[in-house]
Structures are given as structure tokens and as C-alpha cells.
Write a sequence for this structure.
């Protein structure tokens, strides 16, 4: 009997699972209330919106743009290197030095973004005066950039060449390369498809300047059949920085025997002192509209007066920021860029600290004047639930100050096209009613 | 047998220790649009006779007067597992649930007065519906899925006194506290989950009401017994977050039954019961109900076999009141010299209303101990 009882109760315990959910046969066999959804465009809750300039200058950007779009922009990138000593201590412990003989220079640029379909895309290399700094402008550098280029390479031609992947090449370069007849090298990065291009300059094209303590400055312009624009890595981007590498030799005098002197072949990669880009025409100054992007970068602060209807008793399922551009962004399609919205932690105006988290993002397409929409669902949900949060956010370009591109939106000063928030929310379900 | 007895006591204590919330009866889709699905105030013994033995079984919380038959401190608990198939306009679904619909504990305080109590399900409110639809959102047809679930029940806590006024007449009265809660969730998911966040609303609805009942038991002859009962309850209040969301009238309940014993090894009984659910004015589809039952028990008192038949109506449904027909059978087995009794049974119910048919198989298990 004990065993039977045990079996019975085990059976009951095993049966203790629930499945009470069935397809609803509405309205007769469903709860009287239903989940009610509302969709509202709040056209006046974004106010006190402003733009501020100067967050990131061009020389602190993580990329720099070289472009030549007639009637739109002419943008030129450059960098200058640190000092290179012209003498070397031949042996450890020697108190005397010997002169270096500079044989050649290799200059590298990494193209992080380029137009995919343009043809005859060329980079032209210019030697610039070494006194480059943040005060350098398009006009001050124009003579150097309009002189004859030191060298030029055709990216499309290099890409069309077969890759050289023998073991010796792999040992020296780490990956396969493409080399044209002039000795230009192109290497496709295996991870992110960036292109590293190398100019090989002999001592005639790249004379070592003792007067400049070995410093050198190099700039590039871009040309193509159309849509001539490339984005290059900078020192701030880390491994994509432009590089100059000197190849030299020197003689080690042999004073201990009758054997001839030894010639040492060496090379040195020179640290960068400065890199940036200049463009013409410059970005127009700020006006009553909302500006995002450009160099130096502009950001836009938007403050939201959360309506009481969105507090506490509703559940926001989607919130979309609507911005109307003043006009289409001119330029090359491949210079389309991303803008991000970051929540403001404390509203201090232009210097408001922002959260590192991204509340929303969208892509601005060059040449398109379409209304821009940014999804801000999580941000607005948090505002609806937490009244201590600052209901403001800042729009910025990503990466900042890396390009001539900027977009301008109508502000709340233009009532017909002012920023709006499109909110879809679910009203509180009325529980407790049959 | 001592071991069996101990097991029985332990199981009874365990089951009795369950909180009132899950002590719910069978669910029904017919109750979703109303206050719920009325519970069956019957032990396994009464239920396997179609409910006909309810007013004559001390461990069925239907009437109070029958407690006068309890000679020793006793406790009984009922468990039921149901498999329910629902056909809603051709849409089939299978559901399952395990419930503890009733518990009674009673004992004499004097030779003529017995005090008892326990709980039973007044209304079951456990259900879940999934609704799939397409709505226009921002000019785009957006498929959505709503899932609205309610988990819980409204329990009837009873304190009753029965007195045997004479050898043929017993009278009982009871006080009822109707209480319980349901955890309710309304969830909507969007097919476009990239842009639309799932929304979920959760709450707890607390219910409360009070009631009173009276009943009598009269032995016309030594083998013929009749019973009558009456019950009235206050308004049922539903509170959400401390705020009253709704108030609904609860019905008057009255009924009568007769039982005939054909010797010591057979008995048959029948009952009829009315409840004026139609008085719940705030609900448009509430109906007065009439329920009947017929059942019998044969065999020795130590191990009887039971059969039953029931019919009647459910209180909530579109158009006319949904009907319910049920068949049941079961066995009882005493152990430990009559100190314990195990009842098992099976019940088949069919509920039919406008647009919906439910078929339910329920396996019942009851345990009664007399320490």
C-alpha cells in the first residue's frame, strides 16, 4: 500500500506542470481590455536647441580627408616628421660618430576609406615646408601643393596587379603586396580591407635636409575621373598613421686590423610631429540652424521637454528623432558619414558632459536631402521612467573633424521644419476589470 | 499500516500548507470575459458522484450542516490534474493544469456541535490568451503578438459551525472570506523587434469579499435524507496597487438535494442548485445558472465504487449561457483501520457555448485522515 501511495503521489507531482495559454478567440473569449498603442509626433517638445563649434580640431582627428570635387571642396592632407640625426655612433662605446648617407625614403599612407567605383584614382605626393602646425591653412600651403608633385601612384592600377605572395615577400611585409613598375607598393590589410600605399623615393626626390635637422613634411592630393576622395589614417588612429622611413648606410672604420672598413645598411622609421588636413572652402560659420560635423567639429545640443503623458504610466516602444536637413550635404558619396546621439549627463550647455553610451545613430548620405531619423527608444524609455535624468542629448559626427563634411538641420527657430520626436507607446493596461 | 498513516498525514499537511493562490479549480475560457470560472465545492468523493454527494459529504465545502456528521477531528484535501482541449471556431489548443480545489478540516467541540473550516475555489482566474494581429504603425503594416496571462484565483475561506438539533435535523452556518489575487501580465511583441521594443505590463490584482451561508440536513427516514442550502456574498472588490479597479455583485446561491441509502452498500443522490449570476450587472454576458447532478456509490464503505453525472450552465458567455455536461467515476479505499481514506477519480466534462467548445479530462486524488 505504501508503494502504491508513493506511485500515486509521484504521478501527481509529475503532473504539476502548467499550460494555460491558448490562442485567443477575441473578443468573446479575451479580456475586455486590450493592449492599446498610440503613435504621436511631438513637434514642439524639442526646444532650446543649439550648435557649438570647436570640440575636435582637424589635427586631433583620427582620420584626414584628401578630396578634389570641383565646385565643392579641395581637401589636402599632410604630415611632418620628427628630427632625424645625420650622424651615428658606429659601435657601442665609441665616443666618435660617423656620417649617415641617406639612400632613400619610403612614405606610407593608409587609405581607410575610398570610393569603390571611381576610376583612375591617384595619389599625388608633395614635399611641404617642415614648419607645419595648427596655424597652417589652405592658403599658406597652396604654393607647395600646386608645385610639381614629387611622386604619384594610381591606386586602381595597383589594385589590378597580381598579388606577390612568395615566402620572401611575406617574410618582409607580413602579407602579399602589389608592386608597380615604379616601385610603388600597395598592401591590402587582411582584417579591415584598408589599403596601405608606399611611395619609394630616392635621394633625388627626397633629399635629406640637414638644415631642417632631418625633418620632412609630406602632403597628398587626390585625383580621379570622378568622385576623387580618400580618407587617410592619422597618428591618432594608431596603426594607420602616415609614416616616413629613411634607409641609409654608414661606414664602420676598422682600426684594429688591416681589413677594409665595414658598411652598415640601416633604416629608421621617424615619429610624426604633426598631421592634419586643410580644405577650401572652409565650413561656413554657425547660424540659427543646427550643425553637426565639419572640421573643427560642431555638435548640436537638443533639449527635450518630456510631456507628462509620457511619464510613468506608458511604455515607450519606439521613439524616433526627426530632423529636416537645410540642404543636401555636398561631396563625394563615399564621404557619407555617421552621426551619433549621446545622452547628456548634466546640462551645462556647450560643455555638457555626455555619456559614453550611444543613444542612437544614423548615416548621413551625401547628396540626399531626405529627412533624417534617429532611433532614440532606449533613451526616451529611460527618461519616461527616471525623472532625475537630464532630458537632453548631443549629436556629433563620427569620426569627428575627419572630413570637410557637415550637415545642417532646421532648428526650433524654424517652426515648419523644427526637430520633432515621434513616439510610439503603449497605454497602461487596465487590469482588474473582467 | 502505521507507515501508510504517517505518509497520509504528511501529505495532508503538505497539501494543506499550500497558499490559497494556487488552490484553483478547473479553468475555462468561458470565464475570461467574466469574473472567472466558478469552482466546484466538492471533495473527490462528491465529485466522482457528479457532485450529487456534495451536500451529504462532510469534506465537501458546499454546505455547513453536514459537518455535524463528523465524529472525530478530520481533514481532507483534494487535488486534480486536468487536460483541456479547446476548440474556438476551429482553432484547437491543448491546455493542462494541476489544482488543489478544496481543503476541509473539522472536528467536534461538543457531542452536538462541530466546528470546521478550510478553503475552496470561488472563482478561478488562471488563463492565458495569445492574440496575433497586424496593425498599422507609422504607415506600415506591423505584425504583433499579444499575450495576456492571469495566474491565480479567488479563494473562499470558510469558518463553519454545525449543530445536530435532533437525531433527524442538523443545522449549519458559515462565514466566508473571499480573498485571493492574480498575477497579470500583458505583453506585446512586434515582428519588427529591431525597431519596436517588447512591452510588458505586470500587476497584481487583489480580490476581496465576504459572505455567509446556512444549510440544513433532515433525515426523513433512516435511509432518506434531504438537504437545503443558501448562500449570499457581498460585492467582489478588485484592487490594483491599492486602488479599487472594479466592484461586482456576487450571486445568491441556493439548492437542495436528496440522498437514499439502499442498505449499507449502496447509496444514490441528486442535487439541484441555482445561482443568479445575472445580477452581476456590470457584466453584459452574465447569466443565471442552474446545475444538477446525479450519482451513486456502491460497495463496502471501505472500498466503494462511485459513478456520477452532472449538467448545467456556466455563468459567463456570449448569447445564451454555455452548457456543461460531465461524467465521472472513482474509487475509494480506506486504510489504517479507517483512519485514512484515499479517493481517486476521473471526470470528463464538455462545455459548449457560442463559438467555443471545451473538453476536459480530470484525474482527481483526495486524501482524508482522521488522526
Amino acid at each position: 500500500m505504501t508503494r502504491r501511495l508513493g506511485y500515486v503521489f509521484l504521478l501527481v507531482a509529475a503532473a504539476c506542470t502548467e499550460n494555460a495559454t491558448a490562442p485567443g478567440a477575441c473578443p468573446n473569449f479575451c479580456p475586455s481590455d486590450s493592449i492599446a498603442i498610440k503613435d504621436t509626433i511631438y513637434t514642439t517638445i524639442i526646444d532650446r536647441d543649439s550648435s557649438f563649434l570647436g570640440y575636435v580640431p582637424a589635427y586631433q582627428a583620427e582620420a584626414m580627408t584628401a578630396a578634389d570635387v570641383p565646385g565643392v571642396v579641395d581637401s589636402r592632407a599632410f604630415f611632418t616628421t620628427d628630427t632625424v640625426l645625420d650622424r651615428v655612433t658606429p659601435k657601442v662605446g665609441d665616443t666618435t660618430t660617423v656620417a649617415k648617407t641617406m639612400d632613400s625614403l619610403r612614405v606610407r599612407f593608409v587609405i581607410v576609406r575610398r570610393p569603390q567605383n571611381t576610376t583612375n584614382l591617384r595619389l599625388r605626393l608633395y614635399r611641404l615646408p617642415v614648419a607645419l602646425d595648427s596655424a597652417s591653412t589652405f592658403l599658406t600651403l597652396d604654393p607647395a601643393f600646386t608645385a610639381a608633385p614629387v611622386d604619384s601612384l594610381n591606386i586602381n592600377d595597383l589594385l589590378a596587379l597580381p598579388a606577390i605572395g612568395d615566402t620572401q615577400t611575406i617574410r618582409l611585409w607580413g602579407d602579399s603586396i602589389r608592386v608597380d613598375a615604379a616601385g610603388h607598393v600597395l598592401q591590402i590589410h587582411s582584417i579591415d580591407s584598408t589599403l596601405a600605399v608606399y611611395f619609394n623615393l630616392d635621394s633625388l626626390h627626397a633629399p635629406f635636409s640637414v638644415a631642417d635637422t632631418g625633418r620632412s613634411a609630406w602632403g597628398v592630393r587626390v585625383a580621379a575621373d570622378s568622385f576623387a576622395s580618400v580618407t587617410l589614417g592619422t597618428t591618432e588612429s594608431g596603426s594607420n598613421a602616415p609614416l616616413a622611413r629613411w634607409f641609409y648606410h654608414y661606414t664602420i672604420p676598422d682600426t684594429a686590423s688591416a681589413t677594409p672598413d665595414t658598411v652598415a645598411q640601416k633604416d629608421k622609421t621617424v615619429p610624426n610631429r604633426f598631421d592634419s588636413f586643410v580644405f577650401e572652402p572652409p565650413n561656413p560659420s554657425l547660424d540659427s540652424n543646427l550643425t553637426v560635423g565639419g572640421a573643427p567639429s560642431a555638435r548640436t545640443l537638443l533639449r527635450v521637454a518630456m510631456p507628462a503623458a509620457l511619464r510613468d504610466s506608458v511604455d515607450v516602444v519606439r521613439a524616433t528623432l526627426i530632423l529636416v536637413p537645410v540642404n543636401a550635404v555636398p561631396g563625394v558619396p563615399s564621404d557619407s558619414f555617421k552621426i551619433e546621439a549621446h545622452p547628456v549627463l548634466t546640462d551645462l550647455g556647450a560643455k555638457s558632459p555626455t555619456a559614453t553610451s550611444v543613444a542612437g545613430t544614423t548615416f548621413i548620405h551625401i547628396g540626399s536631402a531626405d529627412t533624417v531619423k534617429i532611433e532614440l527608444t532606449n533613451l526616451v524609455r529611460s527618461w519616461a521612467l527616471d525623472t532625475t535624468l537630464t532630458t537632453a542629448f548631443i549629436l556629433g559626427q563620427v569620426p569627428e573633424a575627419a572630413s570637410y563634411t557637415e550637415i545642417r538641420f532646421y532648428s526650433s527657430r524654424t517652426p515648419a521644419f523644427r526637430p520633432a520626436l515621434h513616439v510610439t507607446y503603449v497605454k497602461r493596461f487596465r487590469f482588474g476589470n473582467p | 499500516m502505521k507507515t501508510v498513516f504517517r505518509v497520509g498525514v504528511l501529505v495532508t499537511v503538505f497539501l494543506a500548507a499550500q497558499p490559497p493562490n494556487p488552490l484553483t479549480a478547473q479553468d475555462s475560457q468561458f470565464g475570461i470575459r467574466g469574473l472567472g470560472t466558478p469552482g466546484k465545492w466538492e471533495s473527490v468523493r462528491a465529485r466522482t458522484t457528479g457532485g450529487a454527494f456534495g451536500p451529504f459529504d462532510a469534506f465537501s465545502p458546499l454546505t455547513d450542516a453536514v459537518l455535524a456528521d463528523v465524529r472525530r477531528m478530520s481533514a481532507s484535501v483534494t487535488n486534480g490534474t486536468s487536460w483541456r482541449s479547446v476548440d474556438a471556431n476551429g482553432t484547437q489548443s491543448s491546455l493542462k493544469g494541476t489544482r488543489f480545489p478544496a481543503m476541509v478540516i473539522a472536528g467536534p467541540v461538543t457531542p452536538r456541535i462541530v466546528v470546521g473550516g478550510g478553503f475552496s475555489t470561488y472563482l478561478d482566474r488562471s488563463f492565458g490568451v495569445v492574440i496575433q494581429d497586424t496593425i498599422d504603425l507609422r504607415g506600415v503594416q506591423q505584425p504583433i503578438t499579444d499575450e495576456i496571462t492571469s495566474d491565480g484565483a479567488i479563494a473562499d475561506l470558510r469558518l463553519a459551525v454545525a449543530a445536530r438539533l435532533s437525531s433527524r435535523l442538523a443545522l449549519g452556518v458559515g462565514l466566508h472570506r473571499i480573498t485571493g489575487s492574480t498575477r497579470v501580465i500583458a505583453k506585446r511583441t512586434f515582428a519588427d523587434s529591431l525597431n519596436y521594443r517588447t512591452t510588458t505590463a505586470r500587476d497584481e490584482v487583489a480580490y476581496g469579499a465576504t459572505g455567509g451561508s446556512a444549510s440544513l440536513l433532515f433525515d426523513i427516514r433512516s435511509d432518506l435524507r434531504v438537504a437545503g442550502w443558501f448562500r449570499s456574498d457581498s460585492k467582489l472588490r478588485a484592487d490594483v496597487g491599492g486602488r479599487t479597479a472594479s466592484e461586482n455583485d456576487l450571486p445568491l446561491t441556493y439548492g437542495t438535494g436528496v440522498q437514499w441509502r439502499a442498505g449499507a452498500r449502496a447509496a444514490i443522490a441528486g442535487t439541484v442548485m441555482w445561482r443568479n449570476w445575472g445580477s452581476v450587472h456590470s457584466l453584459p454576458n452574465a447569466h443565471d445558472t442552474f446545475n444538477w447532478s446525479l450519482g451513486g456509490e456502491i460497495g463496502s464503505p471501505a472500498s466503494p465504487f462511485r459513478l456520477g453525472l452532472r449538467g448545467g450552465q456556466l455563468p459567463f458567455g456570449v448569447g445564451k449561457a454555455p452548457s456543461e455536461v460531465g461524467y465521472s467515476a472513482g474509487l475509494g479505499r480506506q486504510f489504517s483501520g479507517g483512519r485514512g481514506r484515499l479517493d481517486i477519480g476521473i471526470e470528463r466534462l464538455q462545455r459548449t457555448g457560442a463559438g467555443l467548445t471545451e473538453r476536459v479530462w480530470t484525474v482527481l486524488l483526495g486524501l482524508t485522515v482522521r488522526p
In short: Helices of chain A lie at 2-14, 138-146, 155-160, 167-173, 377-385. Chain A touches chain B through 47 residues (CB under 8 Å).
